[in-house]
Amino acid sequence: MKIEKIFTAQAKAKGGRDGHITTANNVLDVELSTPKEMGGPGKAGATNPEQLFAAGYAACFEGALGVAARQAKVKLEGVTVEAFIGFGKAEDGGYGISADLHVNIPGVEQAQAEQLVEAAHGICPYSRATKGNIDVTLNTTTNAA
């Protein structure tokens, strides 16, 4: 899929999963540490690629949900998106990730919330990039905050 770029984010990693990352604008400047569950040191105060992916996916998906809601002329308030990124061995012997998105849209009917989440899944660049590549599960609730 070819796109017309309107923005490019830049980040640099050094030292792999137990290294350091920075962004070109110096907003992110963080240590990385492989989680203990994955055989690493799990250093306190450090993050990992899966947490960074989860944060980006959750934020991007909520933005796409806003687009879907505007298109459907639905006003949303108090929405939350929580992304759970799993890491593990793939069937081919390599490694892979999975994504479970928990989307809460208070104040709308369940069926409408599910329609908005499906529409957002078609809009979100993270969802589009992962489509057919990783398992993505969408969980939709309408609980009051």
TrEMBL record:
Pfam families: OsmC. Belongs to the OsmC/Ohr family. InterPro entries: KH_dom-like_a/b (IPR015946), OHR (IPR019953), OsmC/Ohr_fam (IPR003718), OsmC/Ohrsf (IPR036102). PANTHER family: ORGANIC HYDROPEROXIDE RESISTANCE PROTEIN-LIKE (PTHR33797). It comes from Hymenobacter mucosus. One of its GO terms (biological process) is response to oxidative stress. The lineage of its organism: Bacteria, Pseudomonadati, Bacteroidota, Cytophagia, Cytophagales. This is Peroxiredoxin, Ohr subfamily.
